[in-house]
Amino acid sequence: MALLRRRRRPAAAPLSPQLVRCGWDCGARLPMLQMSEHEDQHCVKREVLCPFGCESDRVTVEALTAHKAACRFRPVRCPLGCGESMAFHAKELHVRQLCPRRKVPCQLGCGKHVEIEARDKHEAGACANRIIACARGCGRSLRASLAPAHEEKCSGSAPLCSISSLKCAVVFGDEAAKEALVLQARLALETGSRVLLSAELRENNRSVDDCKLMLRTLYIELRPFCVDQGFLPEVLLEGGGPRGGGVAMLEVKPSEALMLKLADTA
Ligand SMILES: [Zn+2]
Ligand SMILES: [Zn+2]
Ligand SMILES: [Zn+2]
Ligand SMILES: [Zn+2]
Ligand SMILES: [Zn+2]
């Protein structure tokens, strides 16, 4: 045993001119000349330090095997298989809070426990609760677990709600009627529909500028519920010609927040 820490050794008691008693009290009696070697190297009652560096009292050589098997500082391997070794007393902390193999609950609430190092991957790529875009391209955000049911019936584009034949005189002159139009568009957006607002020039004194202003006025009201373009969107003009049969159109799409709210409805 290398780490010998000899106790304050009582002077080997002289027994006879030749024999002395072992200072560790093992009962051995040896000639004086052999006693030092016995006490330093062979006596089973000699005391040594725990090789694991624990703070325990000195350990006798005969008790050392049992002590090492129970010592709080004995090295153990991580039971989760991460490959690390640690003192026995630190194992629980390692397993519960430090080990890269420890399992933690999924933060998206799917109920699974996954290894901490694999959690991001689970939440981004495997979790049934993650939000994904419809694979058919309709623009809907979907809870992954509901995506198959939605995609089965999805046409690949968001449903369209068309609000046509809008009239400047109504939008600018009848507050209640305007509110009703805004509400109709808003309800459509809230169910995930695109909304197409259109006004025929012929029905609006053929005034392109008035029609554009009207559609943008409605857009401003709908802004919190549709994709905010950050500026007044371009109004599309279609048709026209000498007879003034043209149409002014503006399409708006549901906001990201609304689409996320719909993620749980297939
Ligand atoms: Zn002895
Ligand atoms: Zn020990
Ligand atoms: Zn570990
Ligand atoms: Zn999950
Ligand atoms: Zn879809």
Please provide a written account of the structure.
The protein has 266 residues and is an alpha+beta fold. Among the domains are: 19-70, Herpes Virus-1 (2-Layer Sandwich), CATH 3.30.40; 160-264, Translation Initiation Factor IF3 (2-Layer Sandwich), CATH 3.30.110.10. It contains nine helices and 14 strands. The protein has helices at 32-42, 64-70, 91-98, 119-125, 147-153, 168-173, 175-190, 208-222, 256-261; strands spanning 19-21, 29-31, 47-48, 59-60, 75-77, 85-87, 103-105, 113-115, 131-133, 141-143, 160-163, 194-200, 236-238, 247-252. The protein has a four-stranded mixed β-sheet, covered by helices on one side. Strands 1-2 form a two-stranded antiparallel sheet. Strands 3-4 form a two-stranded antiparallel ribbon. A hairpin with a 7-residue loop joins strand 5 (75-77) and strand 6 (85-87). The longest helix has 16 residues, at 175-190. It is rod-shaped, with a radius of gyration of 42 Å. It starts with 18 loop residues before the first strand and ends in a 5-residue tail after the last helix. The model is unreliable at 1-6 (pLDDT under 50). Bound molecules: zinc ion (5 copies). One zinc ion binds at residues 106, 108, 110, 112, 122-123, 127, 129.
Low-confidence stretches: 1-6
Q: Mean pLDDT, nearest integer?
A: 89
Main beta sheet, described?
Answer: 4 strands, mixed
Biggest β-sheet: strands ordered side by side in the sheet: 11-12-14-13
Query: Nearest-angstrom radius of gyration?
Result: 42 Å
CATH architecture of the domain at 160-264: 2-Layer Sandwich
- Counting H and I runs of at least 4 residues, what is the number of helices? 9
Query: Ends: how far apart?
Result: 72 Å
**Proportion of β residues?**
15-25%
Supply the CATH superfamily name of the domain at 160-264: Translation initiation factor 3 (IF-3), C-terminal domain
Outline, from the CA principal axes? rod-shaped
Helix content: 25-40%
How many strand segments?
14
CATH C-level label of the domain at 160-264: Alpha Beta
